[in-house]
Records
---
Amino acid sequence: MQTVKTLQMLRTALAHLRGNTGSTVALVPTMGALHEGHLTLVRRARAEADHVVASIFVNPKQFGPNEDLDAYPRQLAADAAMLEAEGVALLWAPDVAAMYPEGFATSIGVAGVSDGLCGAARPGHFDGVATVVCKLFNQVAPDMAFFGEKDFQQLAVIRTMARDLDLTQPPVDRIFGVPTVREADGLAMSSRNRYLSPDQRAAAAALPRAMQAAVAAIDGGGDVADALAGLQADILAAGFSSVDYATLADARSLATLSALGPDPARLLVAARIGGTRLIDNLPVNRTA
Ligand code: PAF
């Protein structure tokens, strides 16, 4: 695996990788601090494409002023070893100056789908995500790209951007969402789980448990508001300090639903435990 840190090196390495055989390239964008969830994306990408390019870039534009940009874990050597062991061909690891050179002035905003849920609590976050992902797509020009469904709203924002901007590398139907990878007790894997103390980590398992109970209640015809209120009460009782949102939404538009309809729906939650904000989501009426 080659690691490249400048755009020029990236272009040379990509030309070499693609050769003139028309081989396919998959992109797995990350911010590093890799865990099994990321490696699952890489494995999916390897199964679909001839070559996998991974990126590691802790994107300052998607962190708010009071968020964890400085504390965000950075472990490039360890991450590179994991990617190499998974058969990644090329690692794109630019620094901030390479990604946003002096004078960089552009921002991509995806209205609507960015606004509620995490967008309400983290103003500007999805503009930062859309901007950097659009740049990564243009830099690598992949045939396909892989993202975790754990960041369900992010995936919706990226797909909307790709559709609206007529992106072709990758086209919107080659932007794949991969189901969330979970710890044995159900907690969704996240680079931020490492911020949890042992007690908080144990209590955090209440989140997926309460979400599964809410999904079962809603799928079983129960009242949505009651199920969401029960979910919130359960996780607060377990030790979460606050709930940013616990919402049933249309799985495509992310519009809030007060009752289950014929279209696929998603239960989405963001809640805080200690100083850590955890997000998770589950499909509802998966077979509808
Ligand atoms: O999901 C992430 O790790 C990031 O938001 C992404 C997609 C790599 C953009 O910085």
Note: The beta strands are 2-4, 25-30, 51-56, 90-92, 144-148, 175-178, 242-250, 265-273, 276-284.
---
Amino acid sequence: MQILVLNCGSSSAKFAVIETSDGHELISGLAQRIGSPQASLGWKWDGKKQELALPGADHKTSLEAIVKVLRDLGLAATIRGIGHRVVHGGEHFTASAVVDAKVIAGIRDCIPLGPLHNPANLTGIELGAALFPELAQVAVFDTAFHQTMPSRAYLYAVPWAWYQDHHARRYGFHGTSHRYVSRQAAELLGRPYEACATIVAHLGNGCSATAVKDGKSLDTTMGLTPLEGLVMGTRSGDVDPALIGYIAPRLGITPDKVIDALNKQSGLHGISGVSNDMRTLLEAAAGGNDRAKLAVEVFVYRLAKAIAGLAVPLGRIDALVFTGGIGENSAQVRAMVLEQLAVLGFRTDEARNKDHGRSAKGRITADGATTALVVATNEELMIALDTATLVAGKQAAAR
Ligand code: ADP
């Protein structure tokens, strides 16, 4: 079944058409800088890249341009459903859902939890419904996979009313990636997904790690927002919350501005002063830049500590799985992390790690050591598969 996957952000809209029977991506593209004079739409089809300037385009104009491209290439008529990435599903959504008035109201209810993302995700859904009124729309939530976390993992130790009255708790993100990657890992391990214990380290610009046992997320590093947990490209990850009250008056800025800096000027970028990009930092570190080296060291140390912590809910580790741009591509970072995790029995096999596990069914560790794998994530495919399943179910129910 061919599915249009849409990830509508505040100033961008990512799209792909995927044939779910074999996972083939027929077209993929990105409208970016939406709302600015530099707005543009780029896409890749049949191995060729094309770009179109859309000066001043808003979300509506951008999506109309995407649909025109799909129509011109003869791809629009065969699409059977639209899968939307939605960032925050709060406690409303434990799985992907066919969009109806109730689902829209649920996503709207979660706007206070995801103020930067949910409104744009809703815009994508509304425009999708207007442009393709005959197609079912499916919402796939970043948070849904983590709704299986037990209360001991998701509660903050704060006054009870903060949770009860204001829904302040840990939710976790990157759920679509963690779900896809943990499934792929079970397949590589030759074990049923429902009897598998893995720790997935999703390391991209945003980073999070999740303990997955028997197909369920038991704990994850991100919290109420994606700021909690690991050191990331520009996000600090865990800090003492008292840091906000300490630094705000010293810098003469409001607490909101401090949180903004923790999201946008911290992490690898903050420590190194060079870049938020791991590849650039590794090159700078190799060239003798001490702060770049330090940033990588903090990143690796904090990640290794978090992974060791996630062994607690699992009880055993069938595999640690690296994914995301850093996890899939940086043999150096993986080797550094595994070295720090020797206490858990990890030992890197240099040759396997160097070719990203391709020659050994994803394995990058030595025989006899605790297993670590590299698995390429594919959130778009997971969204398309969920959408196809729900669309097929809806069609069967209508018959
Ligand atoms: P996003 O979270 O935006 O999807 P990606 O998953 O593409 O991001 O990950 C981007 C990160 O992956 C960047 O820090 C980039 O430097 C890093 N990366 C990509 N390739 C390599 C590589 N060969 N070595 C080290 N880091 C890499």
Note: The two ends are 18 Å apart (CA to CA).
